[in-house]
């Protein structure tokens, strides 16, 4: 399709374009008023209004000059003011659709004004329509070309700002986690997250690269009773999150959904709590990974804090478990069932009924398993009750990893 208006030189089209070119300033003001009536964002922002006027003037001058000279619309370049307008729209958080509305409405204005001038200049309605359709083809080609260019600039500016904001947030988070002295008000402004209340940290991770982890993190925040979370990407398949929670509160950890693991710290006060709760969440993740929980799971540090402390020297813990449990320290179904029964029995302070309820089996089953476990230990060993209990707990939390060396 030929997008050169008057490529063969129709004088009427050139004359109309030249006449409108001589009237650019009032034409641009009128175009701005037309846009402002339909786009409320202009009225609310004087600086944006000024940029819009500049863009109107530059685009009108460019398109009319191309019409007058018969230049193909494919050769059009976005005016500097149009590109700056696109950057301003991105920086103010306006959507791409709102920005493109300027060009749709601008195209409407231009074609209306040109048609009005053309019908005045060309008395023959059929000839005026033929010429108008020719100009309209050019106008569509021009607006298609320019809207593509300004959209690219809008997205590039949005990406630049998002990268800058992300880098600033990451720098503040790193400083907080390093325990550095920072300006709290400035930090809160950058993060969009209060640091003076109770801080609750969590970690989400997955093996599936297709999971929307930032979105998952926001759903986790709602599950933790918060409106939103501060979320930092910590790798291709890991995000760190923080919410605000009442100090001293015990917040139940929610399910993160299929294919996602979640580790949650405890509520800790203030900027120091931002760091402490995060370290707890990382340690809870470490326990979950040591336990080789292949299925998506939620691990609360409150539930595994003892296992975390015990497993700081994992080789020493393995030796301890082997020494305390002896033949019971084996990774087979029979040993697992007997360890679970003895652990439940000790946790229930010797109550078979409570142990049976905890395990969901008959009390006689618990009794038989406890007796077999004690036989493999060489007897009840009351003097080592606490030590045996701790070893059984370590096996229960850490699973098969506790029986492997290295």
Automatic annotation (TrEMBL):
Which Pfam families is this protein grouped with? GGDEF_2 (PF17853), HTH_30 (PF13556), RsbRD_N (PF14361)
Question: Where does the record place the PucR C-terminal helix-turn-helix domain?
Answer: 341-393
- Report the superkingdom from the record: Bacteria
Question: Which residue range or ranges hold the CdaR GGDEF-like domain?
Answer: 183-287
Q: Residue limits of the RsbT co-antagonist protein RsbRD N-terminal domain?
A: 27-169
Q: State the family it belongs to.
A: Belongs to the CdaR family.
Listed name of the protein: PucR family transcriptional regulator
Task: Please give the organism.
Answer: Mycolicibacterium bacteremicum
């Amino acid at each position: 399709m030929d997008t050169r208006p008057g490529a063969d030189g129709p004088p009427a089209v050139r004359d109309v374009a030249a006449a409108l070119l001589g009237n650019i300033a009032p034409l641009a003001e009128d175009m701005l008023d037309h846009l402002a009536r339909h786009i409320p964002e202009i009225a609310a922002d004087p600086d944006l209004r000024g940029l819009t006027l500049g863009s109107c003037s530059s685009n009108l001058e460019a398109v009319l000059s191309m019409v007058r000279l018969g230049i193909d619309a494919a050769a059009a370049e976005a005016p500097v003011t149009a590109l700056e307008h696109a950057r301003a729209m991105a920086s103010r958080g306006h959507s791409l659709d709102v920005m493109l509305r300027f060009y749709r409405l601008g195209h409407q204005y231009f074609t209306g004004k040109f048609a009005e001038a053309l019908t005045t200049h060309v008395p023959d309605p059929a000839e005026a329509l033929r010429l108008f359709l020719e100009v309209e083809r050019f106008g569509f080609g021009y607006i298609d070309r320019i809207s593509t260019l300004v959209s690219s600039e809008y997205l590039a500016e949005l990406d630049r700002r998002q990268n800058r904001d992300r880098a600033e947030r990451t720098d503040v988070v790193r400083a907080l986690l390093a325990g550095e002295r920072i300006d709290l008000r400035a930090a809160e402004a950058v993060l969009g997250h209060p640091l003076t209340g109770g801080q609750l940290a969590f970690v989400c991770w997955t093996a599936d690269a297709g999971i929307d982890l930032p979105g998952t993190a926001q759903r986790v925040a709602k599950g933790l009773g918060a409106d939103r979370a501060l979320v930092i990407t910590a790798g291709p398949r890991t995000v760190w999150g923080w919410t605000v929670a009442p100090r001293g509160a015990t917040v139940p950890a929610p399910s993160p959904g299929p294919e996602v693991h979640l580790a949650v710290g405890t509520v800790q006060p203030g900027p120091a709590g931002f760091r402490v709760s995060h370290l707890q969440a990382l340690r809870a993740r470490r326990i979950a990974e040591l336990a080789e929980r292949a299925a998506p799971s939620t691990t609360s540090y409150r539930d595994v804090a003892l296992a975390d402390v015990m497993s700081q020297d994992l080789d020493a813990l393995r030796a301890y478990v082997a020494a305390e449990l002896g033949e019971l320290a084996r990774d087979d179904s029979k040993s697992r069932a007997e360890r679970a029964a003895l652990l439940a029995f000790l946790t229930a302070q010797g109550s078979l009924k409570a142990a049976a309820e905890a395990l969901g089996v008959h009390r006689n089953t618990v009794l038989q398993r406890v007796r077999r476990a004690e036989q493999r230990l060489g007897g009840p060993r009351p003097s080592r009750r606490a030590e045996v209990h701790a070893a059984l707990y370590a096996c229960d939390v850490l699973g098969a990893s506790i029986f492997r060396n290295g």
